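Hey, can you fold this one?
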Amino acid sequence: MWPDACVWAVVDNFNHGGIAAAVDTNRGVLCSDGYDKYRAVYPVHPETGTAIKGFVIPQWEAVKALVTAGAREVPEVRYVGWDVAVSRDDGLVFIEGNAFPGQDLSQYPRLNLGTYSVMQAAIKE
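Sure. Predicted structure:
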């Protein structure tokens, strides 16, 4: 259960009361249930009732193109966590790039996302 202070937060991310799920980055499909920082499991989204595992992220190829273009702006920065929203009204919204993106989330045991060696292998020359 979320702490009361987080229920009304205007920020929705793992460290501020939100939930996270693993993404199949080739297909843009969520491939795990959702989890929060307190280890609660969310098979469905708590507000919409939508199943999390198997959810297809809209416009996934366009999202990948957007963050790839962002990465090319400063190629010397080789590790960035991109925040992108897919809006019905505004299309893709590039929110920000994070220089220290969720290392705690990448180590979250139930998501089985990997460790430093997995992240290092994903960074391409």
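The first helix runs from residue 4 to 7. Let me know if you want another pass with a different chain boundary.
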